[in-house]
């Protein structure tokens, strides 16, 4: 009897101090689920999270959840309640690319957008003492003469850089072998030591040692991306028309919450993220990581993301083309 | 009486060998029924996800076979001490409590489930100082919650009641 | 080099740096000692706080967590037979028996001193050889990593002692468990049974905590002294434990070198180095040292190696901008946020920052010794707890610590399931550590073998054409022959049941 009353008392006290309906949102730690492991993307998300945390007055932690090309993080987020305490860091791969590749059954419109976060451009680079070619067009010519001989890395297989690079190679009818690497810096290292012929390079890795790799082609037509890679030639300057522009060939993320999240909580989060993304200090930190802070708020979400989806959909066959062509060469 | 039955190293060795055989069998079953139909069990290193696990499974199978032979051959040479089965009652009860706790953690949440779990394990260990047990259970569960939630910003399971303490 | 350190001194010499390093160490020791959380999670959780400071101070704080966390796991391994982090799995072999003999404080003192000295040695290597070591590491490609993984696997033979066959079985099972998840090459899921929670494989922390903690708690529970206060006279550890470590200087030097070199190879990591160093130390040891029964040398080897690995891992991180392990990947992120780009340019343009980071790393190791020894009585107090309190508390800690790593209840079930695996294996006389080695080395082995074959069009010549790879291949063959000869000698010595049956 005595025992039970003590326990009941403790429970009552607990409910009193944490009854979710009574208190003002947010009242406890919010989690943002990132579809990547430790690396630059984690740092960028932590910068934004820290700034939002100051706005909201509660901690906002980033949970690095790699696995299955980002699907694990999305699933994890979708399995949490729609109470505004879980943010899904909507990177393009799980948000748009995986549904196109039929690996995920959601649509980008199944989520409520908060604000766009950051984008990062990719480029193709090879080692500085390369003697077989000195420009991208020359490398493509070499590749056409030696089908199946070129070895490159896009990081993981079937990721966004792979799709874009396969599309570029397809438009030149060059058959090359992608060698998957979990860590992009490791792939870059193997390019430098001559094991690979070329690899995708992101701005952060390029900036750490601009002398180590020659940037042959920036995979974005945007002037800012070209500038970030030291003015290297971009896809706007090559002969082939790839039909990709804007955010489509880049990595980017848009912070999202689950459908059914209460509207007032969504507004609170949107306001906090909007402020964070406009903070000059936050922008400067993101830019130092080699990422570009994005200005779009939730009103632009459908337009921007559907544009990317439409472009990526037209490219979806490039990876399949590469696989078939490789088998034919062998 | 079941309690007076003796189990020992020999029994555990057979269990371990069986566990390993199950692992090997699962690998082969998955390769045949899941990877092969998906085209992931053929081709070169780029496309074949089954070759390496199959190779390791074969090695494991060989090693387990050798181990089983050793177990058969060394029968009798091993001085089997054995333990009376009733010695394992307490660990079994406590593992059961812990399993129950893990099962209920997602539903009840950390703050509701933890103190009773601590209390129950203390009781299963034979303690009968009820007041002290309650104090320890509440103290330990809330103390650890404070450290993890307020110092490390970890969100502990809230359960269906969404109980989380805003420290 | 000297200029670099001198320039860096200006950035380090402040009270706030010392306080940050001290705070980082306390946090690191705690997250390391608690089962589950480890240095990586500690760094991730505190990065937002760290980046509010200038670069060198922020690095001091984060590096201190890294250093403290790499050592903290030893404390729970020694006291509870549960490695607080996978890094400490090799410390358990001698640390726990030593504690059982009433020398817990000495064991922890040795672990902390060896960590501090090994870490400082790794730091010296970092300072003296950073550029050349980085160049050496940059030459490592897929074939070399594949062979390195095999070298690591031979450590199984040493750590499974008298039950080599069982050790190999546990190791092979570990390799298989590591194949669960998303296959890096086909980008498709493998052995996940349709569970998205398995799409990144089992969480290694859940495996380690489950294997060791549940079986250990169960074995404590079979005792009859659950309610009694342990009558243990626990001596205060003194700063003299440093002498116990320094007395074993050849072991210390050798293990630290192994640690620093393995650390310098991106992706290899502290688990490999601590097991390898332990295996080597045991091979060189005299029989009367009785490794596995509480030999001081065993703790010295594994702890100096895993902390030297932290120093080694900073080599490619700073000199090449390639993270040495997951924890240093987060450190790179912190540096980038603060506007510092690790890589050759950093050495050329901001040598003061490089010097400053070198110095805070050394400071962290020196401070680890002081803070660690001062905190030891607090940890050793655990041994005075009655088991009726200790057991439920440890089980709860295992649950929250494992949950906190991925915020996943599924991981808790993995831990629970591996608890049963651990129980069965331990009861059957199987060593548990080889399974951990297998799980850690599995991806390194599989992915680099497949990458090598992809690069060479399925030819095996890639393993002999490259000089470093050929050398490693030679070393591996020599090691395997040694292991085989060793096993045969014992067989012919008529101790067959020992080799094949082993001890628990």
Automatic annotation (TrEMBL), chain A:
Alphabetically ordered keywords of this record: Receptor, Signal
Leader sequence segment: 1-23
Domain of life: Bacteria
CDD domains: PBP2_Bug_TTT
Pfam family, one: TctC
Keyword Signal: yes
Cytoplasm in keyword set: no
Recorded family membership: Belongs to the UPF0065 (bug) family.
Name recorded for this polypeptide: Tripartite-type tricarboxylate transporter, receptor component TctC
Organism for this UniProt entry: Roseibium suaedae
TrEMBL record, chain B:
Pfam families with a match to the protein in the record: TctB (PF07331)
Keywords in alphabetical order: Membrane, Transmembrane, Transmembrane helix
Domain DUF1468: start-end pairs: 17-157
Residues that span the membrane, as ranges: 12-31, 51-70, 91-110, 130-148
Keyword Membrane: yes
Designated name of the protein: Tripartite tricarboxylate transporter TctB family protein
Species, as recorded: Roseibium suaedae
From TrEMBL, chain C:
Domain DUF112: 19-437
Record's keyword terms, sorted: Membrane, Transmembrane, Transmembrane helix
TM region positions: 12-34, 105-129, 135-158, 165-182, 202-221, 257-281, 326-347, 359-383, 389-416, 423-445, 468-488
InterPro entries per record: DUF112_TM (IPR002823)
Top-level taxon of origin: Bacteria
Name by which UniProt lists this protein: Putative tricarboxylic transport membrane protein
Source organism of this protein record: Roseibium suaedae
